[in-house]
Amino acid sequence: MSLAALTALFLTAFGAATLLPLQSEAVLAGLLLQGEHPAILLLAVATAGNALGAIVNWWLGRYVEHWRDRRWFPVSGSALDRAQERYHRYGRWSLLLSWAPIIGDPLTVVAGVMREPFWSFLALVVAAKAGRYLVLAAAVLAPEWC
Predict the structure, then answer these.
(1) What is the spatial distance between Cα 10 and Cα 86, in angstroms, rounded to a whole number?
(2) What's the whole-model pTM score?
(3) Residue 97 has what pLDDT?
(4) 112 neighbors 60 (Cβ within 8 angstroms)
(5) Which tops the pLDDT comparison, 28 or 115?
(6) d(Cα 31, Cα 13) in Å, to the nearest integer?
(7) Which residues are CB-neighbours of 3 under 8 A, at least 6 positions away?
(8) CA 133, CA 55: separation in Å to the nearest integer?
(9) What whole-number distance in Å separates Cα of residue 34 and Cα of residue 46?
């Protein structure tokens, strides 16, 4: 087993959960196709990295409003208000979309802004992100399973 490959997967999954344009799915798919690591280990590493990145977003969200009126703040006050309103409307269950491109990462930040309790945040985010990686693994490995 290659510790370097697992570390690269973890770091890519972590970075992909932030606003960095990384593709952890491609790294996971490549490692699954290599067949050198157990699929369950790869799924666990990718999920852990991606969930940890989402936790960083949640934590940042807890403190982001402190700077919302600064000129350099990257999101307008009205955009932040709209995001909070949508989160309030759909609630914590919207975190099941935290796996989705474009909306998933900002959603985890908004959950922090909205003071979503950590344990409910973690449970929903891990379920969503693990589910995405499980579906990906099934699609990549499906020819082997048939």
Answers:
(1) 31
(2) 0.86
(3) 94
(4) yes
(5) 28
(6) 13
(7) none
(8) 18
(9) 16
What whole-number distance in Å separates Cα of residue 54 and Cα of residue 19? 10
* Tokens linked to 30: 């490549």
Cα gap 90→84, rounded to integer Å: 10
* 92/86 Cα distance (integer angstroms): 11
Mean of per-residue pLDDT scores for the chain: 89
CA distance 83 to 110: 7
Q: Which amino acid is at 89?
A: R
In DSSP notation, 109-133 reads HHHHHTT--HHHHHHHHHHHHHHHH
Confidence of residue 56 (pLDDT cuts 50, 70, 90): very high
Largest CA distance in the chain: 56
Q: Rounded to an integer, what is the distance from CA 26 to the centroid of its chain?
A: 15
pLDDT higher than threshold 60 for residue 70: yes
HSE-up (13 A, CA, CB side) for residue 59: 7
Q: Are 13 and 53 in contact (CB under 8 A)?
A: yes
